[in-house]
Amino acid sequence: MSFRTPAADMLYRCRLLGHEDDWRPATHEHRAVYNDLQTGDYTFQVRTVDRDLNYSEPVEVEVQVVPDPRDARIEEL
Q: Which domains, from first to last, does the chain contain?
C-alpha cells in the first residue's frame, strides 16, 4: 500500500522460486505466465513498486504442479 501512488499506477515484480532466481522486470500486469513447468513444488512471490521506487515486502503462495491425468489417458489411446 502506498499513500502517494494509486493502486492502478503500482508496478509489480514477481518470481517463481524453484524455477527462476531473479525477479522479473517491473510491469503493470496483474498476472504471470509460466509454460512447461516440471512437476514439483514452487513458491510464487510478488512485490509492488510505487512511483518513488519503494518496494513492498514480498508476499508468497506455495504452488504445486502435478501431472495432468489427461496425458496418461492420451497415451492409452
A: 7-76 (2.60.40.10)
Burial classification of residue 33, based on how many CB atoms lie within 10 Å of its CB (0-12 exposed, 13-18 middle, 19 or more buried): exposed
At which residue does the C-alpha cell 513458491 appear? 43
What CA–CA distances, in Å, run from 10 to 19, 35, 39, 46, 60? Answer: 25, 26, 32, 12, 18
pLDDT in tens, 28-60: 998 999 998 999 999 999 999 998 899 999 999
Q: What's the CA gap between 15 and 58, in Å, rounded?
A: 10
